[in-house]
Amino acid sequence: MTWIHLLFWLFFTLVGNAASAGDSIHTNGLDQEIAVSSGAASSTLINACWTADELRGRPDERKIRSHLPVDHNPPEQLAPSAPAQPLGPDLARSIRSVKPANDAKLVALTFDLCEQSNDITGYDGALVDLLRTEQVPATFYAGGRWMRSHPERTMQLMADPLFELGNHAWTHGNLRVLRGQDITDQIQWTQAQYEILRNQLLSRSCAAALPEAARSIPRLPATFRFPYGTCDASALAQVAAAGLYPIQWDVVTGDPAKGQSAQQIVRAVLNQVRPGSIVVAHANGRGWHTAEAMQTLVPALRKRGYRFVTVSDLLQAGAPVAVEACYEMRPGDNLKYDRLFGRGTE
């Protein structure tokens, strides 16, 4: 253990032993990927590589389209070029929130970009445009196949200093049902696709002209979100072995429900949010009324004194509150997804 790792160990050990939603654990050595994942890249990079019109969302992008034949093709490379540094076994747990030091009113907005092997799920440009206009940091959990089918949008999110990308598995596989190599592929193929697009971005002349800003883009995602919010001990262990922090949530927007209004989303979040909360929503065609809800939520949360941060910054601000299982709001409440979706990949 390096002296830096030791300092993190001492800090998180002293922060506290438990919180209402689970145990506070120490993240034994937050690596450099987390340390630079938010706010490090210069905003000049994104402005140099894309015009305002190219960054702006288009209404037709959000539409979900079927993809036939089903796409079972792997990425051009099957794993990232550098081996991951595995996390300790104490980190093979589902992080639901963070207990911030001094009860700081921090909240992490997270948006899933999931995609299976038989569809193309789109991009909610209105939502991303709003976050940029309001200067709201956010974390996007992108599936590997989503990144491959939306390469330009992926690179824009990657280059934006407001945002960070996390791993959301290759084709939204249910890691509580999948086993062994299938889980490895869901994780590593996504890491590899991120690296492919990062290298593609760095090869562009706009990035070559800004080497310091380009280098500050994280080499790989540092956090992972389980598709369907499902996991077991084996899946948690494989995610930690891949060097990724397993991130769940403690605030549910419910935006996949078509019948839920923006105002219902606003009420749900405001009723659930606490200092250190992680909010789950969607930034593709799977979310309904998400952008409209955020138009109200962002100023409402700021009025309550909350400051928006990425998941990586939230992890550095206190002790993660983690549990040994994955669930939506109560243990066992997502077991139905195993029956409904099985492997979950299409």
From TrEMBL:
Residues annotated as transmembrane: none
Protein name: Peptidoglycan/xylan/chitin deacetylase (PgdA/CDA1 family)
Organism: Thiobaca trueperi
Endpoints of the signal sequence: 1-21
GO molecular function: hydrolase activity, acting on carbon-nitrogen (but not peptide) bonds
Key words of the record: Signal
Residue span, NodB homology domain: 105-309
One Pfam family matching this protein: Polysacc_deac_1
Any GO BP annotation: carbohydrate metabolic process
Residue segments, region Disordered: 66-86
